[in-house]
Amino acid sequence: MEHNMKVAIIGSGHVGLVTGACLAEKGHQVVCIDNNQAKIRMLKAGRMTIYEPDLLKLVKKNYRAKRLTFTTKISTGVKSAEVIFIAVGTPLGETGAADLTQLERVAREIAEHLPPSRKGKSHYKIIAEKSTVPVQTGENVKACIKRYASPKAQFDIVSNPEFLQEGTAIKTTLQPDRIVIGVESKRAARVMCKLYETFGAPIIVTDINSAELIKHASNAFLAMKISYVNALANICELAKADVHKVAQGIGTDKRIGLSFLKAGIGYGGYCLPKDVAAFAHIAERLGYPFNLLYEVQRINRDQRTRFVKKIEDELWVLKDKTITLLGLSFKPDTDDIRESPALEILRELLAKGARIRAYDPKSCAQVKKVLAHKMLTYCNNLYVAAKGSHCLVIATDWAEFKQLDLKRLKKVMTHPTIIDGRNIFEPERMKKAGFTYRCIGRPYEQIADRK
Ligand code: UDX
């Protein structure tokens, strides 16, 4: 590669590690930094701290090629890199604002290690926000670095938000729809465009505030689309219409688009819930109460409650009923359980006294760390989980569940009832297979009976 550059990424979580591996794959020289020594030890030993398809392969390949290295020392990365990414967590604080403690600490540490430029020897660096941050954070990062760095340090702040989706993180990073770069100088824009020139994606260059806003606005819009379709699903249930058809009917209008119109038990995960909350918070602080976002959140919460009610409508009393729960992660192809709707439902069912047999292809180990209950059994096989069950609940749309052997399932269950929170089956097929099948926003019996 012609234009390989030296890059440091501070924070080796989902975003940092994927970004690092993908930039290395493109030929850049990347050092991934994290203050968690155990994590860095694992990564050096070729082991993953998270499950993300193809990530391990990519990390190992680039580590062997010496394009990707790992360290706990911020100083190492700051000294050598032309671009320093900050990819630490910006979790939701108690007030609903993003908690920027880690970001501030890292900015300070970068500042302390920024080498001063001298006559004839420039050490110009770019410090790029990769973490999702509220608009105007760049101004604070800049002020913070100025405060703690040598007056001769030469740097620019850039906002370069990530749009990767867990489960397809490699693809969504290597082949992004767009790359957003918020800059204050032409020099910074040039360096960042060079970094991404082989990605073949449109690059949108803006000011820093706009770039920061684009990230919050994108995730909030996606959340709004999901809440919109979930509200439609509830209307469909009342009106005896089919939300699949309605979503198809509206989504084929190119202005609306088909993606993110899957009705279910609401959005979860590390990003959407916290970003909607943080966006609403910053908008209010700026003087514009973004009430639409509060409604998006309300619909999302309500979707879980409605789903548990649906289970109760079918089983009546939940106490001592055996329920199989399929799926614990917030979405398929990840072991991430942060803000997982499945976990909320699990907790609610346990609170109502149900006996739960849970199965997830990847995330049982994660859930075990945070949830132990005498009424909860973790199973390592889908059919074992379904054994003796009064009802099977689908909470995550893993591909494995879609390929369920219905005959075998029916044999092992006490009652052939499925409550599907992700609409993975056709109601008609389930009825034919002898199941009582309930899903979200689709008329089950009516469709089959009408024929
Ligand atoms: C999201 C954004 O998509 C990504 O661009 C950003 O960088 C990080 O946040 P991610 O958290 O990986 O990515 O998950 P996403 O694929 O957006 O799904 C979020 C939640 O919405 C999941 O719980 C998913 O099951 C749910 N969802 C998604 C729906 O319920 N219906 C849909 O149609 C789409």
Please give the number of β-strands: 14
Strand content is 5-15%
Distance between the termini: 62 Å
Q: Helix/strand-derived class?
A: alpha/beta
Instruction: Name the shape in a single word.
Output: elongated
Enumerate how many helices there are, as a single number: 19
Tell me roughly what share of residues is in helical segments. Answer: 40-55%
Radius of gyration: 24 Å
Largest sheet: 6 strands, parallel
Which ligands appear in the coordinates?
Answer: uridine-5'-diphosphate-xylopyranose
Looking across the biggest beta sheet, what order are the strands in? 3-2-1-4-5-6
Give the low-confidence spans. 447-451
Query: Mean of residue pLDDT?
Result: 95
- Based on the structure, what is the oligomeric state of the protein chains? single chain
Structural descriptors:
about 15% strand, six-stranded parallel β-sheet, about 45% helix, about 450 residues, single chain
How would you concisely characterize the structure shown here?
This protein is of the alpha/beta class and 451 residues long.
